Please model this.
Amino acid sequence: MCAGLREITRNFHCRRGEIDLIMLDKKVVVFVEVRARLNCSVLHPLESIDRNKVNKIILTSKYFIQSNRKYQSSNCRYDVVCLTGPVDSANIEWIKNAFDA
Model:
């Protein structure tokens, strides 16, 4: 999906929430929220992530880190991937550091 990143897992679930992708960018654990919109004339996919969703992602990422000892000393980053338009020709926008914990 993104050059240089390695996938750790997809669709990570716990009681606190869900994270679409968890990737590794060198030594940085990247938590990725994927948002898709057929038409973004009303609302950009990034704008659809409210504070409640951000908090769930952060809580879920903390649970993931606590549950996986090998990542406990790693730095973390929160990215958002926005897909707009038809599935077969979607525009992909990867936003690094979309929000902070």
Notes: The chain has one domain: 5-95. The chain is about 15% helix and 45% strand. The longest strand covers residues 5-14.
